[in-house]
TrEMBL record:
<dbReference type="InterPro" id="IPR020557">
    <property type="entry name" value="Fumarate_lyase_CS"/>
</dbReference>
<dbReference type="InterPro" id="IPR000362">
    <property type="entry name" value="Fumarate_lyase_fam"/>
</dbReference>
<dbReference type="GO" id="GO:0006531">
    <property type="term" value="P:aspartate metabolic process"/>
</dbReference>
<dbReference type="InterPro" id="IPR024083">
    <property type="entry name" value="Fumarase/histidase_N"/>
</dbReference>
<keyword id="KW-0456">Lyase</keyword>
<dbReference type="InterPro" id="IPR051546">
    <property type="entry name" value="Aspartate_Ammonia-Lyase"/>
</dbReference>
<dbReference type="Pfam" id="PF10415">
    <property type="entry name" value="FumaraseC_C"/>
</dbReference>
<protein>
    <submittedName>
        <fullName>Aspartate ammonia-lyase</fullName>
    </submittedName>
</protein>
<dbReference type="GO" id="GO:0008797">
    <property type="term" value="F:aspartate ammonia-lyase activity"/>
</dbReference>
<dbReference type="Pfam" id="PF00206">
    <property type="entry name" value="Lyase_1"/>
</dbReference>
<feature type="region of interest" description="Disordered">
    <location>
        <begin position="1"/>
        <end position="28"/>
    </location>
</feature>
<dbReference type="InterPro" id="IPR018951">
    <property type="entry name" value="Fumarase_C_C"/>
</dbReference>
<feature type="domain" description="Fumarate lyase N-terminal">
    <location>
        <begin position="49"/>
        <end position="379"/>
    </location>
</feature>
<dbReference type="GO" id="GO:0006099">
    <property type="term" value="P:tricarboxylic acid cycle"/>
</dbReference>
<dbReference type="InterPro" id="IPR008948">
    <property type="entry name" value="L-Aspartase-like"/>
</dbReference>
<dbReference type="InterPro" id="IPR022761">
    <property type="entry name" value="Fumarate_lyase_N"/>
</dbReference>
<dbReference type="GO" id="GO:0005829">
    <property type="term" value="C:cytosol"/>
</dbReference>
Length: 518
């Protein structure tokens, strides 16, 4: 398919040269390259194609650029995916060399090109196809094959497009199909992209825990269904948020383990057609060594080629995390509402002016941003679900959108969580006096007196306090239901915010604290 044979320098033509025979994409093959731009001619099974002279991609990629002008998001915008593609191609080249299928000079050139892309971020801007594409990722796979082939050719002293010396399909893609190389690269990319998210969650949990300690003595009223409930500390509230997010660190680690199992060597549908029987195990062995990840071959390559279950499960964990984050941010917005006519229990850092018309207004913009990121992730989960369900028979053609959805969710969650920690959580302050006043005036205090007063008496006190707009403690003392000392003991913060073993004095029916329940 090559255009320039063994020559060391490609012949450069110009866009205003005699026209190349038009394939289905016709003159649009150049995608906006103006008159006079240097190009080279390449060809594929559909005919000749004009490719920019300085491009490392080839004919297949050039057609894909014209075929999928969809999102404006390129494969190269996800460095983890580009690096993972290079790792897969590197592992394949080494395995094929070990099997005697790929000459050492070609294998070494391919390996060197892959190392440059993986370790040095070289040529990431050459991965230009849109992330959403038909063909189950073929355009992405060929983009990688062509870029690696042309870089390897340069390392061999040849010109770009000299595919008679080293071919994108015959050499770079040897023993592979898009249907095993691309899914393997996607799994590697997801493993890599999960690491910064795990660090971000851990840092946020630590920040929330630090606030839990700082606010451990701030007594406030808890609420159920937005109605006053029973006292708690503000520290307990923050500690609960830290704990629920830390759970998801474990869930993410469990889910990402599924990506260590890959179908490399499956080729088109899992039967391994065109691959040496020894290739799959050797390629995965090399991939594990190069990536530092414990990669293993799938037990059933036919199943692994068609099934998207690991992606669905992982996406569900991301959705779970997004739901929790959004709920926490809803709470932050509610607890900081006011400052005069809202809850006003906490103050969020003022990061920007809140209104173009209302002077002095400050909005909870960081939690609001996290809410919206959460909604994007939740929507992406549905997208992954439908893409996984939509596959037919031996292959799922919609894996590119699965990859885009998951990699985007990981990127957005990581950025949102880091921003939430740095620009919101670490600067939160407690409005201590306001919190305490809410407890003193709360009807829910009567719940703490239930063991001493009994449910019916406590209910009567609650109704009277609400009707007369009075404090529960004042009514209890007025009616002589408890002594001042017993009442004060029952209303201590330590008593109201933790389990305590309680004995009732038979004569006065007053609570006597025995010991803290562990």
């Amino acid at each position: 398919m090559a255009s320039s044979g063994d020559s060391k320098t490609d012949p450069i033509i110009h866009i205003d040269a005699p026209p190349v025979a038009a394939g289905p994409t016709g003159p649009a093959d150049m995608n906006g390259y103006g008159a006079g731009a240097s190009v080279r001619r390449e060809a594929d099974s559909l005919g000749a194609v004009c490719v920019p002279g300085d491009a490392y991609w080839g004919a297949h990629t050039q057609r894909a650029i014209g075929n999928f002008p969809v999102t404006g998001v390129k494969v190269g915008d996800f460095p983890d995916l580009v690096r993972s593609l290079a790792l897969v191609k590197h592992a394949a080249a080494l395995a094929n060399r070990r099997l005697g299928l790929l000459p050492p000079v070609k294998a070494d050139a391919i390996a060197a090109a892959c190392v440059m892309i993986h370790t040095g971020d070289r040529l990431h801007d050459q991965f230009v196809v849109d992330v959403v594409q038909g063909g189950a990722g073929t355009s992405t796979n060929m983009n990688a094959n062509e870029v690696i082939a042309n870089l390897a050719l340069e390392l061999m002293g040849r010109g770009r497009g000299a595919y008679a010396c080293l071919h994108p399909n015959d050499d770079v893609n040897m023993s592979q199909s898009t249907n095993d190389a691309y899914p393997t690269a996607v799994r590697l990319a997801l493993i890599a992209a999960t690491r910064p998210l795990l660090r971000a969650i851990d840092d946020l949990c630590y920040a929330l825990k630090a606030k839990a300690v700082a606010f451990s003595d701030v007594l406030k009223i808890g609420r159920t269904q937005l109605q006053d409930a029973v006292p708690m500390t503000l520290g307990q509230e923050f500690d609960g948020w830290s704990a629920t997010l830390r759970e998801d660190i474990g869930r993410l680690r469990e889910a990402v383990v599924l990506f260590h199992e890959v179908n490399l060597g499956a080729t088109a549908i899992g039967t391994g057609l065109t691959a040496d029987p020894r290739y799959a195990s050797l390629a995965v062995e090399e991939l594990a060594r190069l990536s530092g990840e414990p990669m293993t071959p799938a037990a059933n390559l036919v199943e692994a080629t068609s099934d998207m279950g690991a992606f669905v499960l992982f996406s569900g964990v991301l959705k779970r995390l997004a739901v929790k984050l959004s709920k926490i941010c809803n709470d932050l917005r509610l607890l900081s509402s006011g400052p005069r006519a809202g809850f006003n229990e906490i103050t969020l850092p003022a990061v920007q002016a809140g209104s173009s018309i209302m002077p002095g207004k400050i909005n909870p913009v960081i939690p609001e941003m996290v809410n919206q990121v959460a909604y994007l992730v939740i929507g992406a989960d549905l997208t992954v679900t439908m893409c996984a369900e939509g596959g037919q028979l031996q292959l799922n053609a919609f894996e590119p959108t699965i990859a885009w959805s998951l990699l985007s969710s990981l990127r957005h969650l990581t950025a949102a969580i880091e921003t939430l920690r740095l620009r919101c959580v670490e600067g939160i302050e407690a409005n201590r006096e306001h919190c305490r006043a809410g407890v003193d005036n709360a009807i829910g205090l009567v719940t703490a007196l239930g063991p001493a007063l009994g449910y019916e008496a406590a209910s009567r006190i609650a109704k009277r306090a609400l009707r007369e707009n009075r404090r529960v403690a004042d009514i209890v003392l007025e009616e002589g239901l408890m002594s001042p000392e017993a009442l004060a003991e029952a209303l201590r913060a330590e008593v109201m915010t933790a389990p305590m073993r309680l004995k009732l004095a038979r004569s006065q029916q007053e609570p006597v604290l025995d010991e803290r329940m562990e």
